[in-house]
Amino acid sequence: MCITGKQLNYSRPLEVLSPAGDMERLEAAIEFGADAVYLGGKMFGMRAASPNFTEEQLREACAKAHAKGRRVYLTCNTLPRNDEMPHFEGFVKNAVEAGVDALIVNDIGVLSLVKRYAPDMEIHMSTQTGIVNYVTAGEFYNMGAKRVVLARELSLEEIAEIRAKTPKELEIEVFVHGAMCVSFSGRCLISQYLIGRDANRGECAQPCRWGYHLMEEKREGEFYPIFEDERGTYILNAKDLCMIDHIDKLAAAGVDSLKIEGRAKSSYYVSVVTNAYRRAVDCFLQAPDSFSLPEDIRSEVFKVSHRAYCTGFFFGHPKDCQYYENSGYIRDWDVVAIVTGYDSERGLLECVQRNKFLKGAELELLEPEGLPVSITAGELYDENFEPIESTNHAAMKFYIKCDRAYKPHSIIRKEN
Length: 416
Known about the structure:
Number of domains: 2
Number of strands: 20
Number of helices: 10
Largest sheet: 8 strands, parallel, barrel
């Protein structure tokens, strides 16, 4: 099946869905253009390493998102054990009271309990459900699911067929950006086998990112690289996914929601990547039949910490989605400050420090839902308006001489 932009009526909105590991990252996602955020509570979520949200914080998060017209999806996508099931009713009822817009579930039993405890709650089936065909997608719709998050191992053509053969009311969500797991849609046992941390309960230690050697059983202690390289090989290390150049093809396949991975990533990452996809989607919607992503939008995804990018399975079986050199990140830029206000009387941009930089530094500023602009730190002042030579104290308040105001939450960064 050949997919073109003219095959689909673009009346269905494209949702930009961003991760929120804590309140700071939720605010970043909202400020930088997410239509919705997904987050976890203290139980039943797949990111145990993230701070996640207490019951009180969940209510606050929903209030902040709804005040801006954004939606909140709560994860309950682990595979809960017997001893956890008595706690699930309270978890669901708290989600309802907090104002959560949808629950993301993985387990059929959990799905049935959500229908029992909160019959009006919207249900999204997690990518870990492993939905790869229209029959399964349709059956989950019949069971009460509003949305399916498809397995990451599908091509655009397969997604288009699922769209064509399921009820139009069923929404389709796919991951479009971020870290990829070498296992099938996140179903992995390597971490549990090696160090007892269960990936299916949000505790993955990412052993797929480790370097490995081969050892012959009768030559203990003699390690042989699987490739002719003394460092060994990272045989399980997947590249990061990036589909920002292909918004038109995702829309043509019938995707409703573009999901960004990263509940354990920084607020800077969430801000920049959300902003990039927000602008990419808006650019596409302005000219859906002649979409061409401007370079100043595309380049943004390279200004966060990332691995080498690929397009996963979207264009067929991946031929270049493993990275064998190392498991490290590419970090060409660092956030150095966050804008908190503007002193119009003195012409000073009020900021909070994130990393040290020197007076005279060439910087880049990114406003929420904007494009980066270059600025120079020609004059720096401390919180008492005394001249300083550098921002050398962690989280210090300081000022940059600037002839115009920029929005609060704007990011200031510096190229390494």
